Amino acid sequence: MKTKTTSRVLATTLVTALAGIGLTLPAAGATGSALEPAVKPAHGTSHSRLQADVDAIMKTGTVGVVARSTGPRGSRTATGGVADTVTGEAARAGDGFRIASASKTFVATVVLQLVGEGRLSLDDTVEHWLPGTVSGHGNDGGAITVRQLLQHTSGLFDYTGDFPVLTGKAAYEAGRYTTWTPEQLVGIAMKHAPNFAPGDGWSYSNTNYTLAGMIIEKVTGRTWQQEVTARVIRPLGLRHTLAPTTDSRMPGRHLHGYSGFGEAGDPIDVTEFNPSAAGAAGAMISTTADLTRFYQALLGGRLLRPAELTAMKTTVRAPELDPGWAGARYGLGLMEIPLTCGGSYYSHGGDIPGYTTRDGVTADGRRTVVLNATGDGSSDSSTQQSQNTLIDNELCA
Known about the structure:
With 397 residues, the chain is an alpha+beta fold. The chain is 30% helix and 14% strand. Residues 2-22 and 24-44 have low confidence and may be disordered.
């Protein structure tokens, strides 16, 4: 998800607050090209390089970092900082975390599976499946297709840009346990005029994926959480991945999230959060190992038929993401990011207050990098840049 601040920068991902829920993407306040890595360290072994890059992220003000790099020769992990500032327990490679907007790739995968089964078309309109839901203030569900929802070309206002719970410590504390329905979240967006006519631009909007989740339920008769679990989580054996509904707690070993929401004073523990506020746009919880397995299966062709995978990987320019990833493009629930060594990789970051997920996978799924950092990180672009450097170093090695 993302907040206004994040929304603009992709909205920096749930924005550091819900916008962050993966919801947003690049880091707020990023300037210049965060995609261009800092000077690459003169690492020795591949493991020492990964650890050095994690250490570099820690130096930008994060609380904890977990990272996993996987390729033909196996997997390597590196960690930094603590999972809990109260106990001082160190972050571990298997710790769970909120993946925020990285959830969108799971949701897009289910939608495309339904397309492959002939139960849904990317050219279907929102009005066809959800009559009357997108209307008012210039919004017209009859003019918006499912493809445009998944690609963020619908023009719909991002509801996290008018979502008080993400605006500060007090607001978060007051609203963190509130349960929201998808209809309520979409209703917030419908109070605003669209950013542009459907298909006439690109703008990251969590509203798009809220609607996608609602369409999944209309088509299947089951919630998006149930469909993601049955179609992706269970078949792949993702034992530490959850698509929660309203439970604010995180099970098992996990990283605690911390955010100051840009206010003075100490950050607060934001770990407990009712995921209904993010929903299909960014509610999921996972680990670096599970996300690695997911991306390998997806890009390796195990979850989608060739036609649907090609559609997912067909991208358009997403200039709103340039502050975080120069030259970024966006497909159907997947970003495409240039590599400094040539070519590109696929990804979907996620930000929610306290948690930042970043990842990268090659087109064939054989090389994958996943990391999560807790805390707000830097007020400039250094945290984002350090994360990009880690992924670039691993995929270009």
